[in-house]
Amino acid sequence: MKPGKMAVPGGAGKSAATGGTAKAVAAGGAGNKFYEEPIDPYMPKAGNRGYRVSRYELDLTYKVASNRLSGKAIITAATTQTRNKFAFDLSQTLAVSKVTVNGSRAAKYTHQNGKLTITPAQKIPSGGALSVTVQYSGTPKPVRGPWGEVGWEELSEGALVASQPNGAASWFPCDDHPSSKASYQISVTTDSPYHVVANGALVRKQIRASHTTWVYEQSEPMATYLATVQIGHYERRRVADNTSVPMHAVLPQRLRTRFDHDFGRQPKMMETFIRLFGPYPFADYTVVVTDDELEIPVESQGISVFGANHCDGRRGSERLVAHELAHQWFGNSLTLGAWRDIWLHEGFACYAEWLWAENSGGPTAREIAVQVHRTQSGLPYDLVLGDPGPTLMFDDRVYKRGALTVHALRTELGDDNFFALLHRWTAKHRYGTVTTEDFTDLAAHFADHSLRPLWDGWLFDRNLPALRDGA
Q1: Which domains can be identified in the chain, with CATH numbers?
Q2: d(CA 380, CA 11)
Q3: Quick check: 27 pLDDT over 60?
Q4: Closest CA to 185 of 170, 196, 206, 201
Q5: What is the pLDDT of residue 6?
Q6: Which is it for strands 303-306 and 335-336: parallel, antiparallel or unpaired?
């Protein structure tokens, strides 16, 4: 991301303008076109029907100097309906040159309004195998929308991908909705001086003349917006050798001393969150610090990305370090099934900031909650936390009210039951998609009385409830 430009929502809330309404048109039978309801009313242009993706294999070549991307995407899916056509999300800045379906000769396709619509030579029955290969190239740019610019972004020297909520289509064809989770192989070939990071384990690195190919395998299911590629003049090193989870830093050499101080308590933070939330859900954890400044950091699966400005030598961004790490549990392993439930990501990650403060010699979560509640009480009461609408879904009040809701639940249940609930929550839905109803139903098993008044007040009333005595 260019210096001064804003990263996507994730590290701190931002108000946003509402998006327009889209009409998704699909063919249900020969000559029978009909309007379909959007996959998600918060994001009516994203996501598609008729199939379920199980794997993406992305073979990318990127020229840093010219910001030129060439790609081949192999998408493996199973059909859920018998249809004439299938659509994928793909930005118009990328031109498609060839499409094949199930190994056949080139298939017919159209690419309009951010949708790559493919017509197989023969109908594929419901439950059938769907393997689509797409060859494409172009100058990738972020997707511009109500939440700013998200997706593939040039850095001064390299590139950054931060796709929340709908920027994945800026660099590969996909079913761009968080409920659509799949495994990935991401191969990136670029100029040899550059270091490439992507999700998962580095399974192969091959140097050929002036180019290097980096191949990453992400085996755990991942939402499209969490897929990432980071390219820069970076060094990679192990952060600590005495942690239960391997932790790495990828950053410019010039920032190493500041990083060691600013992120120095991260291994302790990891162990604290494992104790409070349950086992870390992935094989390792990597922090990328870009050479450019970013307004806010952002999470992706197994990776968090910070700007050079977050290494200030004073631990000035430590609460954000905690926030992004917590997203590995709340958002990356457990991913919302609909964007209206965004509080399940941001409320828990924000509360993790308070828990870290409480467990590292800072103020208690109660003390922070009282202060935050006082501030929130002076803000407009025009937000319903459990369904904030696309306009307000990344508003800072979703983060803060979400954290207050989590704290109110903790007060209601008591610490033993509350943290037992969190352990059960992260274990039961590991690598899955979740809803607010899933959480409230599970929480009921940890209470000896109805929690309905708590949920009604905190999640579904515009007014800000009072903190209970002792909260």
Answers
A1: 24-232 (2.60.40.1730), 235-333 (3.30.2010.30), 336-459 (1.10.390.10)
A2: 22
A3: no
A4: 201
A5: 40
A6: unpaired
